[in-house]
Design brief:
Elements lengths: L1 H31 L7 H29 L7 H26 L4 H37 L8 H4 L5
């Protein structure tokens, strides 16, 4: 029964991480990102907003869940860095590709970058940020644990 509650807690945490991150993306986009994108600075606010939303949503809910479920060690700094870096990868790609298409042709930019690429890279960011948060715990379970030396194994005494 304990295993069921662990899986249930993990699934609930995952759902809350996704929902809060997507909610933050929507709210911050309404407050920060301008309605019409006319400069590169305006466009770069989009990846920055998405990145920050997923950082707060995935890392914040994840650490809070680990604390509530008493799943120590938390490895807070490593999880923060993992989430930060992994969530940044799709956003750097989005920024680069969006600026490569350019803002000169507004219709093409709105259709391709804002219409298609932003939603695609937002979902990609979801996967990458979750990987960044959970990768450490997956590797901890995969690496073999060293056995402690017993008294007889560690002594060099001969009879």
């Amino acid at each position: 029964m304990k295993k069921f509650w662990q899986i249930f807690g993990w699934a609930l945490t995952l759902i809350l991480q996704i929902l809060l991150s997507l909610l933050l993306v929507e709210l911050l986009s309404l407050w920060i990102v301008p309605a019409s994108i006319e400069t590169p600075r305006d466009f770069l606010l989009i990846p920055l907003t998405i990145w920050f939303s997923f950082l707060i949503g995935v890392f914040g809910v994840g650490i809070l869940s680990l604390i509530i479920r008493k799943m120590a060690p938390y490895h807070t700094l490593i999880r923060l860095i993992g989430t930060l870096v992994m969530a940044l990868i799709p956003m750097v790609l989005l920024g680069y590709l969006g600026l490569t298409i350019g803002l000169e042709n507004q219709k093409e930019f709105q259709e391709v970058v804002i219409g298609k690429m932003v939603s695609y890279y937002t979902h990609l960011n979801l996967v990458f940020s979750l990987l960044g948060f959970y990768l450490l715990s997956w590797f901890n379970k995969l690496t073999p644990k060293k056995r402690a030396l017993t008294v007889n194994q560690g002594s060099d005494h001969t009879a």
